[in-house]
Design goal:
Pfam families: Aldedh. This protein is α/β, with parallel strands linked by helices. The chain folds into 2 domains: 6-244 and 447-468, 3-Layer(aba) Sandwich (Aldehyde Dehydrogenase, Chain A, domain 1), CATH 3.40.605.10; 248-429, Aldehyde Dehydrogenase, Chain A, domain 2, CATH 3.40.309.10. 39% of the residues lie in helices and 21% in strands. The protein has 15 helices and 21 strands. The chain has helices spanning 38-57, 59-76, 78-89, 98-114, 149-162, 176-187, 202-209, 223-233, 258-270, 290-303, 322-337, 370-373, 389-397, 412-419, 454-460, and strands at 6-7, 18-22, 29-34, 120-124, 129-136, 139-143, 166-170, 195-197, 216-220, 239-243, 248-252, 280-286, 341-344, 360-363, 380-386, 401-402, 404-408, 426-429, 444-445, 448-449, 462-468. The strands form 5 sheets. The chain has a 7-stranded mixed beta sheet, sandwiched between helices. Strand 7, helix 6 (176-187) and strand 8 form a beta-alpha-beta unit.
Length: 469
């Protein structure tokens, strides 16, 4: 199975075996992705199963060497990869966007390669000695999203390969070209069958979730789809890592120096045009500073350039697909109809392209409104007023999701005390969405389970084995 990107210049032999992929900003066709089937998936998993023992036998040092070579190659091809990503996903080249994502792919690949994971002595009384070792699981199935297609694929692929597993990737049908191109970079340094991409529709994704030939499934996507992954994987008890998105809350405590935090708040909300699982999606602000925060965010929203990602001046792009565009428009229209105040934005920016939506700040809105209660996943933030910190914490925790949260304050001690009470896998202070390849990341409640990054991420794609003497 080829993992080569099919472009307009190199069409496939059969029109039935390819699918056109549009530019997210212009909707012009930029290339064609192979349309793989469940039979192709079966063959990829069989090849991965056959290749896995030899890959594991290479040992950690050789796998580390190869992954570091992959990272070198990602850096060498960074501009090419960033341009493809910008066109397919929509995020601009500059800002915390396409070039940033490609750079992160190299960083996370090196981290997976170089993070030490030695056997752990868990008991030794002079008579009995017990150690935990970490063996490969076998074949890992990775199902990725369309919002950060390259970076999240690396989070799945690199740790699994480092630990001696082989990997079969099912990218989102919206962004397959970026993942196929990334796999080409990896496969220049890997034996045949160790890493394959199966570019298919939802039927193929469902087959990955329930495939008896997989030992581990890593899924990033919606909570609804995550539940189906759990159900499908139950019959063969495949291990799971599920990152299911969130409706992250931020709380601005009274007395906060807004000049110090305003830009951090903005990017915590609008990173990747709001299309980030761990973006700040509902902001609670004390009444004493409510109007000031609303106006600060609105001012930044008006000033941030939005448009085609290949324009070096832009830092915000379109919604990636029609379905997500419709969700954002529906939620904002509903909020307006319920009496919320649209401070800035609030409409489609069709003059920029079919799927652009203005950067939007919504005020005078309450919990119970769909824009607050649902994950909008776009360039919109509802700002909710509160008068009592305990009430704000309770409202933040009321969501069924718990991926991330944040507290904003000039009083670090007060912020830390509030952070300890928030129900989320990660709680940031005076930042939101900042991730580190050495710091574990994962959600609680309906945002999934399992951790990625660092030693915890390596353990998640390995089988613990106790050796006792």
């Amino acid at each position: 199975m080829s993992t080569t990107v099919t472009t307009l210049d190199t069409p496939t032999d059969s029109a039935s075996a390819r699918r056109p992929i549009p530019d997210a900003a212009t909707r012009e066709i930029i290339g064609y992705a192979p349309v793989h089937t469940v039979d192709d998936l079966d063959r990829a998993i069989a090849a991965a199963r056959a290749a896995q023992p030899a890959w594991a036998a290479l040992g950690h040092e050789e796998r580390r060497r190869r992954l570091n070579a992959v990272a070198d190659n990602i850096e060498a091809r960074a501009e090419e990869l960033a341009h493809l990503l910008s066109r397919e996903q929509g995020k601009p080249l500059n800002g915390p966007n396409a070039r940033f994502e490609v750079g992160a792919c190299a960083i996370w690949t090196r981290s997976a390669a170089d993070t030490p994971l030695e056997p752990e002595v868990v008991f030794d009384d002079g008579t009995t000695h017990a150690e935990v070792h970490y063996d490969p699981l076998g074949v890992v199935g990775a199902i990725g999203p369309w919002n950060w297609p390259m970076m999240i694929s690396v989070w799945q692929i690199a740790p699994a390969l480092r630990m001696g597993n082989t990997v079969v990737v099912k990218p989102s049908e919206f962004t397959p070209l970026s993942v196929i191109a990334l796999a080409d970079v990896f496969n220049a340094h890997l034996p045949e069958g160790v890493l394959s991409v199966v570019s298919g529709d939802r039927e193929v994704g469902a087959a990955v979730a329930g495939h008896p030939g997989l030992d581990k499934i890593m899924f990033t996507g919606s909570t609804a789809t995550g539940r189906r992954v759990v159900e499908a994987s139950a019959h063969n008890l495949a291990r799971l890592t599920l990152e299911l998105g969130g409706n992250d809350a931020g709380i601005v405590l009274p007395g906060t120096d807004l000049a110090a935090v305003a830009e951090g708040l903005f990017w915590g909300i609008f990173l990747n045009t709001g299309q980030t699982c761990a973006a700040l999606k509902r902001l609670y602000v004390h009444s004493s500073q409510y109007d000031e925060v609303v106006e600060a965010l609105a001012g930044l929203a008006r000033a941030m350039p939005m448009g085609n990602g290949l324009d070096e001046a832009n830092v915000l792009g379109p919604l990636q697909n029609e379905k997500q565009f419709d969700i954002v428009r529906r939620l904002v229209d509903d909020a307006r109809d319920r009496g919320a105040r649209i401070v800035t934005g609030g409409r489609a920016a069709t003059e920029l392209g079919p799927l652009f939506y203005e950067t939007t700040v919504v005020a005078d809105i309450s919990d119970g409104t769909p824009l607050v209660d649902e994950e909008q996943f776009g360039p919109v933030v509802p700002v909710i007023r509160y008068d009592d910190v305990d009430d704000a914490v309770a409202r933040a925790n009321r969501s069924s999701q718990g991926l991330g949260a944040s507290v904003w304050s000039s009083d670090l001690e007060a912020a830390t005390a509030v952070a300890a009470r928030l129900q989320a896998g990660t709680v940031w202070i005076n930042q939101h969405g900042a991730i580190n390849p050495n710091v574990p990341f994962g959600g609680v409640k309906a945002s999934g389970y399992g951790q990625e990054f660092g030693a915890a991420g390596l353990k998640a794609v390995a089988a613990p084995k106790v050796i006792q003497r």
